Fold:
Amino acid sequence: MTLDDSIKNKKVLITCGTGGVGKTTLSAALGVRSAWLGKKTVVVTMDPAKRLATALGLKNLGDHPTDLTPLLIEAAKKIPGARAPLGTLAAIMPDTRRTFETFVRELAPTPVIADRVMRNPIFQLFTKEFSGANEYMALERLDAIVRTGDYDLIVLDTPPSRNTLAFLDAPQLLARFFEERLIRWLVLPANKLLATGMRKALGILESLTGAGFMTHLFDFTAALFEVRTGFTANLKRITELLKSKDVGFLMVTTPTPETVEEIRHFVDTLHDHQFRFEGVALNRTLGYLEVEEKERSQPYLVLRGLQKRERHVLEELSRTGIPLCAKLPEMARDVHSLEDLFHVAMAFETGSLDQHDLRPNGARSSKPT
Amino acid sequence: MIDLKTGPAPNSIAETLSRNLIFVGGKGGVGKTVVSQALALLHAQSGKKTLWVAIEDPTRPPGELKKTGPSLWHLNCEATHAFEEYAGLKIGISALTQLFLKNKLMRYLAQAAPGIHELVLLGKIWHERLQYDHVVVDMPSTGYGLAMFQSTENFSRLFRGGPIHRDAEAMLATFADPKQVGQVIIAIPEEMPLQEALELDDYLAKLFPKNRAAFIANKIFPHSSSIREPANDWEKNPLARTAKEYIERRQRLEADNLKTWEERSIPWKELEMVPPNEGAGLEFVVRALAEQLQSRIVDRALK
Structure:
């Protein structure tokens, strides 16, 4: 199954992977290809480094959808043999802080409660530099976008994570906070029905954290307690969405010695959650280059070594039956324009780029539209 | 952005690498693990008692402390272990510690409260540092690594008074001290990692203005004088057509990319990409890089 197949069959594609594998660029390329094939497409990236903005050659990608269709049409004109895109492309880079605040405001029964939560120093800590919130908010935003019904395909570029699975676990972890059995003790601190053990533990916590903190904590949880019904309903909907047949997960990775193990781990976790795996997009490959044996200088040795390592990874993937949806070539420079993304997307149809595809101007000829 | 010239720069990269506690940070995929292990190996090879720390490596047992060579230990720092150890240290009485740790609510807070995770991991490292001549930490990638220092600062402010506050303050004082702690930022010669390195440096400079980071550019593609400069038409097509073209373009691209550091007057050292050696594994690369660190950084500084 190729990436073109995934684009055609799904309503949501979620790309996962560690840092430095080209995930954001690939997500953007998926968006470009999808729009080109005729779908109303949006690419959502949470990436704080504004990489999508770089990949799309834009500087101010924002929280509201930016329509890239006119730019896409212009870019297509620069690619020989390419016809105009049949669909539309938008991009969103949600502001995590804003998204979390919107989230709280929507869930809180009254504005007073929402304000109380947001003024609380613990909440403020919670939304600063907190990596877990990024992951969860990406899913909340995805859910909101799905519900608008505005798009045929949503590509969600997840925050890069050494532990890709943190992204998948985020909802469950937050959900536990709202378990009534736990929250009850924090909401009713003066409750004399508290068991001795619990009272002692809270006492120890207080002695460790100093005066004031416990008050903030009780206040925070009391306020948050009010939003639990809305939150739990959201969570349930998000989990069902992720399990649906319209949603597919893609793992983006590069050929390193750890790759296969990482992929296996990821696939197992997806399986545990009952999410659907589209396959692996192996990025930054060099196998498409022919390296002559007679070349023995250091650069060629390195190149050959890298190619050999890549072959091992491909063999291993094949042997273990892990689906490979695309083998994408390492670009000789950074990708920073929509035209570049067209090049990246060239491999989506057949799954990889071959030597004969590398025409002087880089474009493929006689591809059916 | 803070101008590098206004803050004191490290005496030299070699000096930074010789401090007691070294944090190795940078974007995901730049080689922090290998470079930090190489640095640890280098210290151990000169007879110094050295600890290399991984932060929650899922492929190793959590909390594992393994002796990997004469004078060299590897620790897989893990938050739950660190938390329990810390609780034991602070609460003191064993029965009370157990009560605290077994309490469902405390367990939940320890796991889910944002920042606690990061705080205890850093706390463990800080606590261990004086047991060794050198501690080299393989930090999580940029934002996540930064969150560890940021959390320490946040909690220090949140818990006004109390033992955790005092410890957090002590930790921050240590990290700010250029006599004790070194920050090393690694990047590969690509646009985004180089840019993130500068951003990380800026953030760290805000937290620890008197203790600026040292920079290393890793995985530099080997240079070969027989290769010419590539033709200038690569803007149209990002894909190389032949191996020779790829190599030419790559060398040129890396040099161009590194201009972002040049423009900011960032001094840096380079480590060359080690040809993948089939079947040799991580240790082979670590040893090769340790040699490079020795010859390119340490030996040159001694001249």
Observations:
- The beta strands of chain A are 12-16, 40-45, 66-67, 88-92, 153-157, 247-253, 277-285, 324-329.
- Chain A touches chain B through 79 residues (CB under 8 Å).
- Confidence is low (pLDDT under 50) at residues 359-369 of chain A.
